[in-house]
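User: Show me a protein chain along with its predicted structure.
Assistant: Here is one chain, sequence first, then C-alpha cells.
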Amino acid sequence: MGKFCEVCEKATLNGNNVSHSNRKTHRLWSPNVQRVRVEIDGQVKRLNVCTRCLRSGYVQRALPARSEEAAVEA
C-alpha cells in the first residue's frame, strides 16, 4: 500500500470538496509518505514512513556508511 505510514499507521482519508455553491465532489487526502531505509533493532529495513514520524524522531534513518576513500576526498 503506497500511501500508508508503517510507523503511526496514518493512511489516506476521503471526503468532499465543497464549492461556494455547496456542490460536493469526492477527493482524497494522502499523507506525505517517503520510502526510507530505517534502522530497527540493529537491522536495516525499508519502510514507508510519513514525514511527521521522520521529523519527530520516531524512527532512526539508516544512512549509507561512507568509505575511507570518500572521507579523504571530502
